[in-house]
Amino acid sequence: MAMCGRRNRSKFILSILGAFVLGYLVFYRNSQSDVAQASRREAPVDLHGNENVELLKKPVYEKPALDVNALGELGRAVKLDLTEEERRKEEESIKKHQINTYVSDRISLHRRLPERWNPLCRDLKYDYRSLPTTSVVIAFYNEAWSTLLRTVHSVLETSPDLLLNEIILVDDYSDRDHLKEPLENYIANLKKVRLIRARKREGLVRARLLGASIATGDVLTFLDCHCECHEGWLEPLLQRIKDEPSAVVCPVIDVIDWNTFQFLGNPGEPQIGGFDWRLVFTWHTIPEHEQKRRSSATDVVRSPTMAGGLFAVNKKYFLYLGTYDTGMEVWGGENLEFSFRIWQCGGSLEIHPCSHVGHVFPKKAPYSRSKALANSVRAAEVWMDEYKEVYYHRSPHARLVRLLL
Ligand code: LR7
Ligand code: MN
Fold it and tell me: Which of 71, 180, 243, 256 stands the most exposed, by the fewest C-beta atoms within 10 Å?
């Protein structure tokens, strides 16, 4: 059985990576992690000296006043009545990003989402001052302006200031102009947002690791660069990791429509991750034995695999696991590799039903994903022992790719 023998090798790779990261990056920071630490020490109390939970929950920024009539507000679908010329522009935007950025650009970067968690989640109580802090790491490659910045604002407006050390944006060698100086100037006005840039295309695995290497939080929370966080999304993840440091915890992933930007979450039981024998990620309903193990609808659900983009992990535990396979390029495979790694190294992978985050699923892949097969072969070779033969049987082409690795 392939166990955590890769650990030391990966640790070695990470330390090399960490060493050159310092000289390798241009890095902007406009905030300090001691802000959260300082406010931690001064427990907010009300006039009567009682701990004030509302103060402890206070996000980094409050959302601006609600304008119910604004486009897409509260996660509503946007349908525009367009002239032919406008329609042409909309089509162009879809061709460029595989999401309707013409619509996205017209929705507030601060919009609210409809309530989509199980109502029982509202009753969960947290001891805010004892929860671990987190750094949110967001890698991006050529992302559209409004989807990227809506992600950033959404994190800042839904995460308690006390718990969020920073957001680390990692530019994976994008070549679009809006992601250069305009982005630097924009985030210079935001608290707790840092930007680092890779000097060559690293792919999402190494881009995330660049971000992780400068993170100051106890927990690393990874998000894709086109997400919107539901109220209260962060606390359940951090609470679970506090209770069980070897748990890697995913939010429920709600769908944001690429065309209308409608938020399609639902408060029902989440689905869990699996895979087929071609190592394609699949969704499944929660099996009966797992339902029996849970005592409440707000308990975590154990999941064999994760979709890959959205999860929180204790930083120390992430290092213990040997992080990711740093030989994986661009996109694909790392989610199953990391899932297998967690379970085979004695941890657990879980979905928290009280943490919801929306994700924009594009119309089709916006960039080439030709390395995905090689990444899957790496996952099979390292973690699947004799079961890799079933994979090669179902995916004969992978055998050829194996020869080239
Ligand atoms: O070369 C790259 N460099 C990057 O920085 C390629 C991508 N990226 C960034 C990208 O800008 C984005 O922020 O990495 C993130 C993920 O890329 P996406 O959004 O193109 O991926 P996806 O949402 O189509 O794919 C899912 O599977 C991937 C497998 O490699 C990753 O694990 C993604 O994070 C993952 N996304 C999710 O889990 C969200 C829910 C999708 C589902 C189901
Ligand atoms: Mn994505």
Answer: 243
**Which amino acid is located at 160 in the chain?**
P
Judge if the beta carbon of residue 309 lies within 6 A of ligand 1. yes
Whether pTM > 0.85 for this model: the answer is yes
- Cβ atoms within 10 A of the Cβ of 348, count? 15
- Asked if 353 and 300 touch (Cβ cutoff 8 Å), the reply is yes
Q: Which domains does the chain have, with CATH numbers?
A: 84-110+120-404 (3.90.550.10)
- Report CA-CA distances (Å) from 333 to 10, 66, 201, 340: 17, 41, 17, 11
Would you list the DSSP string of 125-187?
A: ---GGGSPPEEEEEEESS--HHHHHHHHHHHHHHSBTTTEEEEEEEE-S---GGGSHHHHHHH
Task: From the CA of 141, give the closest atom in ligand 1.
Answer: 11
Determine whether the shortest distance from the Cβ of 116 to ligand 1 is under 6 A. Answer: no
pLDDT in tens, 55-105: 999 999 999 999 999 999 999 999 999 999 999 999 999 999 999 999 999
